[in-house]
Amino acid sequence: MEKSAILLGSEAIAHGVKLCRPQVISAYPITPQTHIIETLSEMVDRGELESQFIKVESEMSAIAAVLGSVSTGSRSFTASSSQGLAMMHEILHWFAGARLPLVLVNANRALGGPWNIWSDQSDSFSQRDTGWLQIYCETSQEALDTIIMAYKATEQLMLPIMVMIDGFILSHTMERLMIPAPEMVDDFLPPYKAPCRLDPENPLTFCSAAQPDLFYELKKNYSNTMREALTLIAAVQNDFALKFKRRYSTVMHCQEGDKNSDTAIICCGAMTGTARVAVEKLNKKGTPFDLFKLRLLRPFPVTELAAALQDKKQVIVLNRACSYGVGGTLSQEIRSALYHLDQRPVINDVIISLGGKEVSPETISEIVKNREQLSAAGPNWL
Fold it and tell me: Does domain 253-381 have CATH number 3.40.50.920?
């Protein structure tokens, strides 16, 4: 049976990883991710988790170590944050190009300079073109559950998956949650059997050079699998809901206005909880708004998002990452997803929190109340 526990978000992640029984763990400490690997190392040291824990000297070494372990057919895990994730950039491309399954947790933190240890989503958004699936979590419970679902998906797709939690907001705060029973997870997630692996008895070549035509075909196949991943992710989420009674979707309708609601707010990650409070209060006061949470950034759920927003006249996008010279990164993704619609809503691009800038329900309420003053050309810095 599941058991209830009060855990830090980073501890919840560690418990989710433990339930998935990785054979190799390698990571380098960086705030605010450090608690994840500290907890896992303690689990290994106490004999609670049968895994080889590889100590390394940098984030580049950590991702390179698990590149090797996954190539031999081992279920593996790593984690990072901010400059550490940036340091992994080269090997992130190699992981995707080699079609190797891995779950990596990133505790979102601003990228320097200037130095900043607080949370925004610039680190992971800057990696969205590396070929990894990206999933953003609102709560620690969602993060723990997503780890389990991510392992099931990555090993079926043979594509690596990055799971995001907001640094400090989730990683360093406590939440009462449910930890699934190990036997239930074992039934949901069978041991990994690599379709091909490094084996002295059966030599294979991995990550060799490719001529232009072959390179193009391999990338085309990768793109096709990414699109197919939307269907598989939906199936994994449905299977998880049937077994564990907690349901997730790629685009989640968190607060619903009345039938006259023509405005929606959309965000991703832990800020969704703050937005829930703001929108609930606005709806009670007779100002109807819908709130949507985007869980999946890659592959981008174009069809699901278009269906959710096609009847809206205005969409306010709350961004925690910016592509300087253009605007909010999430806003760009949403504009692109809705461009094909005959009736498109106005996208209001709001840069709301970089470097951990505090956002309260009142902040979001003020944005909504003054929405007529928002520039449709954007970005709107607050």
Answer: yes
- Provide the whole-model pTM: 0.97
Fold agreement between 3-244 and 253-381:
yes
Contacts of 342 (CB under 8 A, 6+ apart): none
The DSSP code sequence of 113-175 is SSP--S--SHHHHTTTTSS-EEEE-SSHHHHHHHHHHHHHHHHHHT--EEEEEETTTTTTSEE
Q: State yes or no: cis peptide before 114, omega within 30 of 0.
A: yes
Determine the angle formed by the axes of helices 329-338 and 302-309, rounding to 10 degrees: 80
**Predicted pLDDT at 205:** 81
Domain regions of the chain by residue span? 3-244, 253-381
What's the gap between Cα 262 and its chain centre?
28
The amino acid present at 226, given as its one-letter code, is: M
Strand partners, 161: 103, 133
pLDDT, tens only, 248-271: 999 999 987 766 789 999 999 999
**For domain 3-244, which architecture applies?**
3-Layer(aba) Sandwich (3.40)
Give the containing element (helix H, strand E) for 53: strand 52-55
